[in-house]
Amino acid sequence: MAAILDVAKLAGVSKSTVSHVLNNTRFVSSETQRKVKEAAEALHYQPSVVARSLKVKTTKSLGMIVTSTDNPFYAEIISAAQKYCHEIGYDLILCNTEKNPIKTKSYIQVLSQRQVDGILVLCTTYDDVTFSTIAGQKKLPMVVLDSGPTVKYIDKIQDHSYRGGLIATEHLINLGHTRIAHIGGPENKLPAKQRFDGYCQALRDASLPINRDLVIESDLECEGGAAAIKKLLSLREPPSAVFVANDVMAMAAISVASQMGLRIPEDLSIVGYDNISLSEYFNPPLTTVNQHISELAELAVKTLIKRILGSSETETVVMIEPNLVVRQSTCEFKA
């Protein structure tokens, strides 16, 4: 394996000049830069990440802790974050804990040993161990996406879930629906609660009752969406419309309802949440609340880098405003 001294000899310059060129830490003439870069490429030289970090106080690498990659929403956030990191010259190290709190603690230790500059956290659930592990990292800059610990040294990027629940339900009300159900996420997950609160507010604004028989707490997974819609459609008076807390459950609900003989949207209108890529190509294309996934991921990376550079001293909570994307899974109520 080539060393920095080999690059210096081939380029005819000193070791310090090679270091300055590769780390961009001092002015070096364009001709010398060309010689150094050509020599490094010819020798397949790879600088030591740890050594570089000691020189310039950064490894240009970030970690990302996720509890699941199964849900397309989380997979798309990860992809968008990786893309943006690559564009700005950062490496992103992905760690999937598979909802195992012991793995969460282990991965944070590994990322710290790798001397990453900071960590992005995307957790679908928080148990006591995961919460305390993340909240306990005071020296390592962190940004949490979606929901997580509220402490002054951890920044958060969230969508305005209350607003999303409100506009989704208002859309169904404006189409003439009055018996509107809600399939939500776990009540202990803040975005799920906020989406439910928005749903309730829209019903109150329209002077419609909040019928607890039409509200089902689920798990944000396909199986949960399927079970919930079966329960709703078994009611003596089933709903004519459903606001579902994420796209995955909404698409499962459409599939099950169709298998039961209902036409979507003629017999049952359904609104999802997230606007994952697949929602546009589902049958029928899903009306959904757009979370602006790429913007969410890019803003998280920018906020983390700002924290790494020390330009943020207090907790930053950034709310991204959602909007409704109307497609073919909703229509006017027909008595």
Automatic annotation (TrEMBL):
It comes from the Bacteria. The keyword tRNA-binding does not apply. It comes from Alginatibacterium sediminis. Keywords: DNA-binding, Transcription, Transcription regulation. The keyword Transcription applies. GO terms for molecular function: DNA-binding transcription factor activity; transcription cis-regulatory region binding. Residues 4-56 form the HTH lacI-type domain. PROSITE patterns: HTH_LACI_1, HTH_LACI_2. This is LacI family DNA-binding transcriptional regulator.
